[in-house]
Amino acid sequence: MVRPAGSYLELFGVSSGTLERLVAEGLSRGGDYSDLYFENTSYLTLLLRDGQVSSGGRHVDFGVGIRVLKGDKTGYAYSETTALPDMLSAARAASAIADGAAASVALHASKSPAPVPDRYPILSEDAEGLADFMERIEKGIFAKEQRTVKVMVSLSFERSDMLMFNSLHEMVCDTALMAAVAVTAVFAQGDRVENNTFSRSRRMGTEMFSDALVEEMVEGTVKGIDERFDARRPKGGKMSVVMGAGASGILLHEAMGHAFEADFARKGQSIFTGRTGERICPAGITIVDDGTIPTERGSLNYDDEGIPGQRTVMVEDGILRSFLHDRVSARHFGVAPTGNGRRESFRYMPLPRMRSTYMESGDADPGSLIAEVRKGVYVDNFSNGQVKIGEGDFTFYVKSGFLIEDGRLTAPVKDINIIGNGPAALADIRGVGNDLLIDGSAWTCGKEQSVPVSCGIPTVLIGSLTVGGE
Amino acid sequence: MTDKLAPGIITPEEILLTEQALSFALSHGADSARLTLNKSLLDLVAMRDGELDRVSHSLDRSLQLSLFADGRFGTFSINRLESKALEEFILDALGTLKLLAPDPLRSLPSPERTAKDAVTGLELDLYDPAYAEMDPSKRKALAEKSTVWARKASLEDGFTVISEEEEYSDSVFDTLLIDSVGTRCRHTETSFEIACDLTVQDPSGARYNAVWWDARPFLRDLDIDGVAEKAVRKAAEAIGPLPCGGGRMSVVVDTECASKLVTPLLNALGGFALQQKNSFMDSTLGLKVLGDNVTILDRPRSAGETGSRLFDSEGVATEEVPVIDGGVVKRYFLTTWTAAKLSMEPTCDDCIRPCIAPTGGCRDLEEILADVGEGILITGFNGGNSNTSTGEYSFGIEGFLFKNGRRVHPVREMVMTGDFRTLWNNLTHACSDARECQAKQIPTLAFKNVEISG
Predict the structure, then answer these.
(1) CATH number of B12-237: 3.90.580.10, 3.40.50.150, 3.30.2290.10, 3.30.280.10?
(2) ipTM
(3) Chain-chain contact of A390 with B74 (C-beta, under 8 angstroms)
(4) Average pLDDT of the segment spanning A243-264
(5) Do B82 and A386 touch (CB under 8 A)?
């Protein structure tokens, strides 16, 4: 939600003149661009254990980050107060990236922020009833699944007010919300113990914590627990892998998405460096990073450099069309920023980061993709993944899935890794389902800093990946 | 901001503010409270391809408040350390407590358990006076000294260095913990770090990335010169991986990455997992569940050693104790609350500085390879995870196939699977080569009969 700039200036205790003085100080040693990022974030956390919401807290993080650019080089410092001497000191520290006299930078007339649709209106910030919401989830899980031993429910609600100003004289203000709830449940069957986790998160107010979400959390937590007790590790080796729609999008994020972030391309580290306009995967595959989906966890009104949130097509029909840019990489490559300059907080300088990353639907029936496989695995529940950007090697931990034998889902499998190479896997996609699903889990990307993201994918068949098993 | 700071960067004014906040909380409804003020100052200089790329300067302050009122408990934090903002925050925090259910088991640790010897913060000898002499030009000179970009051609042999990044940083951390029953603890330490992230390319265009780093409490001990060359060597050694099949085999795990196999074991001994019945080490205290040769000590009070601490997050005095002794579980890590929930005696909140006792009679990696003879040398983990309830794990691995004690060829895109209790019953070697820069003193390890696929 964007409110009038005056209320943000008041919140941070600064004037327009102060903003101008700070960017001028940042440029005082020859920097060619400077920007300010004021942030006031407050969040509430609640934790239910052993049937009661008996711990929780509130947290406040307040400050301003000051960045100075000199070509591709970056100076950064921040202050946890907005007292002028502290902010000027930070600006001077950031200015040290340049080592000369002040550059001649023309300051233009103040610009209004580019109008954007509000992707996360504030409907409610009321904390009343949240403990009851959590208790109903816990009771629902115990009622639904008799093998439940323990249930832990964590809930958080966050509000961030941000003011951005730069040496181009652009001022952008925004207020962003984030609500999240997660469950970890432990189940016992005889002497065997299994656990499951389930989460949901959106850029919404506390109205997200609804009756419908109680039901979704209960169903999502107990789903597949029968299979988990029956599941075994398959015999490992190279085999076909069918990625289920939705949460398998984390593979797209990790194995391919990071290689599209332009800081890696600028440094020559991305496997896709210099390949814009080339075919990198079969025709029919389109990969998008989208900041415009209303209330999605990865959506943005503006990125953390004041660039409007937008939809960026990275791969179109198999051809690499665009990297994901912040202002630094955009300037380096001579293109427009794509609204991917994001940061964890005012303590961090922005980097090119994904928002909601997904592959668009293809035309295959999902069942037909499974039917094509003689021997392989179907996977749809991942806990985490990792990629080596330089090589493109990735590994994903699969919480649950099924063996595929002669075109049918057979025995459940669990706790296995699939491992492969991103570009090779992308080129080895044999079919894309018509069932794109963006997963609603509380995904957080940890590239140097933590930022909320979303991911999604339709059902996808990959010809061969290494599956770790017995 | 203050750029020239004496040992202990928390100022007398900030100490007074913390004490006043404690009094304010107690006089406005808190029955008891613990306040922890953390302050840190970090300067970083990053090089890319031999040229200055980034500088940053970070001064952080955060006050964490653990408040107990009317049988309720909450944790709160704020970085606005001004009296008025702090008082408003405390009143709001006390209001938030009313959202919570009472929990009669929440309390501060008893005073006799808290650290009495963390008075100045300097007792563990982790503060380097050389820190006060650092300035931007010295930092830049150290970062420039670490890079090999200008002379990379002399290092290239069948490959090209295509990307080199170094980060030099120095920092000071200062913590003050006080509570309403008189606990007062201080910890101050400096840290100097250098890291190199480097990518090489072979003639076929395949890329290989490697990271090498060093971190020390004292600048004089930091290996500035060697970091990039070690990264080059590590990346070059990985060129030309070949498949090697799979099956059950011995693995040797380099000290650089061996903590990946220790951390889940220690986490499973933590009260958080145990209390939630989400631990594969549940109900094992006092039982022999791991191999005879498995001994893990917690050594948090070793002066001058990275990772040492005299007190935990509750102010409880740390102890030098066995965690696992000859395969027998000797210690769970239990806070005041988790101990009360489990009707057990409280200990510390974590294994602060784990050290694995040597076994198998080898001093270093090469001796272990010779003694084991054949298997996979793991030099890095690429993703993977473990099931906290069952202890089953699956990790991506990379490294080398070795035979007759010698590396044959690199391997990658392989997976190691099993469960931790079985793994730690199959430990054959632990030598004594843990790097001083690691808070977790985990040496090169070897295990037999491990499932590998790839």
Answers:
(1) 3.30.2290.10
(2) 0.88
(3) no
(4) 92
(5) no
